[in-house]
UniProtKB/TrEMBL annotation:
It holds the Pfam family LysM. Residues 1-23 form the signal peptide. Residues 107-151, 170-213 form the LysM domain. The chain crosses the membrane at residues 386-405. This is LysM domain-containing GPI-anchored protein 1. Keywords: Membrane, Signal, Transmembrane, Transmembrane helix. The keyword Nucleotide-binding does not apply. SUPFAM superfamilies: LysM domain. PANTHER family: LYSM DOMAIN-CONTAINING GPI-ANCHORED PROTEIN 1-LIKE, LYSM DOMAIN-CONTAINING GPI-ANCHORED PROTEIN 2. The keyword Nucleotide-binding does not apply. InterPro entries: LysM, LysM_dom_sf.
Amino acid sequence: MRNLMQLVVLLLLFSIFTSPTHAKSVIEPCNSSDSCASLLSYRLPWDSKLSEISFRFKLNITDLLAANSINILTTPSQGNQILAAKTLLKVPISCPCVDGIRRSVSTTYTVRPADSLESISEGFGRLVSAEQIKMVNNIEGSLTSGETILIPLPCTCFGNSNNGASTVFMSYVVQSGESLMSIGMEFGMTVMELVSINGLGHPVVDPGDILAIPIPACSSANLNWYNESLIVPNGSYALTANNCIKCTCRSSINLNLQCSTSGLDISCSHLQCKGTNLFIGDFYTNQTMNGYCNVTKCIYRGHSGRKIFRSIVNTSAHVRCSGMKDFGSLPPALAPYPSSVPSTQLSPSCSPYPGAFRPSPEIGALSPTATPPMISSYARLSPTDYFFLLHYFVAIGTFPLYLFFF
Ligand SMILES: *[C@@H]1O[C@H](CO)[C@@H](O)[C@H](O)[C@H]1NC(C)=O
Ligand SMILES: *[C@@H]1O[C@H](CO)[C@@H](O)[C@H](O)[C@H]1NC(C)=O
Ligand SMILES: *[C@@H]1O[C@H](CO)[C@@H](O)[C@H](O)[C@H]1NC(C)=O
Ligand SMILES: *[C@@H]1O[C@H](CO)[C@@H](O)[C@H](O)[C@H]1NC(C)=O
Ligand SMILES: *[C@@H]1O[C@H](CO)[C@@H](O)[C@H](O)[C@H]1NC(C)=O
Ligand SMILES: *[C@@H]1O[C@H](CO)[C@@H](O)[C@H](O)[C@H]1NC(C)=O
Ligand SMILES: *[C@@H]1O[C@H](CO)[C@@H](O)[C@H](O)[C@H]1NC(C)=O
C-alpha cells in the first residue's frame, strides 16, 4: 500500500507539472482489465431534468436514482423531475483500466452550435477540463456542431478497499472556498485520510482539483451468493437480478446489504421462500415460552439468469422480540447526502401503509396474491433491528443455519 501511495504521489506531482491548468487529480496506475464500481460527485451546473442528467452520462435513469437513494416507486415521472443548479448528485460509473491508468471513457457528447470546450467542461461539472477534452479528442481548431466527442472522466478503484473495508471511491471536484478540512467534514473523514488517499504532498487543495473520496460500502463478499457479487456505497441501493431485487446499503452502525423484492412492475419469479409465506427480505419473529426471540427470515442469495436463489435463515436469541413489531421505525427513503437535494423534493412520501402486514414504503406494491400471514409479528428490519440481529448472528454463531430451497 505504501509503495502504491508513493507511486500515486509521484504521478500526482507529474500531473501537476504537466497539466496546463495545474489542477491536481489522483491517478491510479493499473495493469489488469477488470473494472470496478465507482462514483462521480456531480454538481449540477444548471437546472436539469433527471432524464437529461442520465442522458448526459449515458446512464440508465434507474441507476442514477439508485445511486442517490431516490425511490423509483414514489417518483413515477422521475425523468421529468427538475433538480436545481448546484445540487450534488452521485453518478455511478464503471471504472476500467485504460492505457495503464484508471479512467472512464464510455461517455460521449454530441457538440451543439453554441458549445465551447469550456461550456462542455462546465456541463460535466468540471469533472473533465477543457484541455483534457481537447487533448483526448485531438481537437485542433474549433468544435464542429454535430460532432461526437469523447468525455474522459476521472475514477479510481484502489481495489474497492480502504484500510481493508469495502469502499467505493468517488471523484469530487473541489469548489472555491473549500478546504480539505471542510471536505473532510462533509464526508466524515480527517484531513490526514484525504491527504493519504490522494497522495497529496501538502494538505492543500485548490478549486478544480479532483479528489478521490472513499465512500464506505456494503459488499456481498461474505454473503455467499451464487454467481454474483455486488458492492453498494453507503446511502444508496442497487437493483439486481433483472431488477427484481433491491439491495440497500444504509446504516450508521454496520454496513450490511439489505436485499428485498424491488416491487417494480416486472415479471419476477422465485421471490418467495418455499414452504413459507415470506418473500425475499421479509421475516417474522416469535417469542417462545422460554424467552427466546426466534427470527425466521427469507434472504436473497444471488441469481443465475432469471433464477433467483433464496434461503430461510432461522436465528434465535435470548431477548424480547419487542421492537421488531415497530412498523413505524422505518429508515428514511433518502439517506442524507451532504449539500444534496432535500429529501422532500425527491422522495415525496415515506409513510407506512396503515394496518398493513407488509409495510414496505421503500418497496411499494407487492405481489397482490400474497396473503398476510397469521403470525405474532411481522415487519421489515429497521437498521437498529439489523444491528441487534447481526450482533446475535455473530454472538451466538447461528448464522449459517441455512435451509436451501432452490
Ligand atoms: C500490476 O499492478 C499491481 C499494482 O497496481 C502490481 O502489484 C503488480 O505487480 C502489477 N503486475 C504487473 C504484471 O505489472
Ligand atoms: C440500461 O438498461 C438496459 C436494460 O435494462 C441494459 O440493457 C443496458 O445495458 C443498461 N445500460 C447501462 C448503461 O447500464
Ligand atoms: C455459477 O457458478 C457455478 C459454480 O459455483 C458454475 O458452475 C456456473 O457455471 C455458474 N453459472 C453462471 C451462469 O455463471
Ligand atoms: C452511512 O451514511 C449515513 C448517512 O447517510 C451516515 O450517518 C453513516 O455514518 C454512514 N455509515 C458509515 C459506516 O459511514
Ligand atoms: C410461536 O410460538 C408459539 C409457541 O411459543 C407457537 O404456538 C406458534 O405457532 C409460533 N408461531 C410461529 C409462526 O412459529
Ligand atoms: C426457536 O428456536 C430454537 C432454536 O433455534 C428452537 O429450538 C425452537 O423450537 C424455536 N421455537 C419456535 C417456536 O420456533
Ligand atoms: C425455522 O423455523 C421455522 C418455524 O419458526 C421452522 O418451521 C423451520 O423448520 C425452521 N428451519 C430451520 C432450518 O431451523
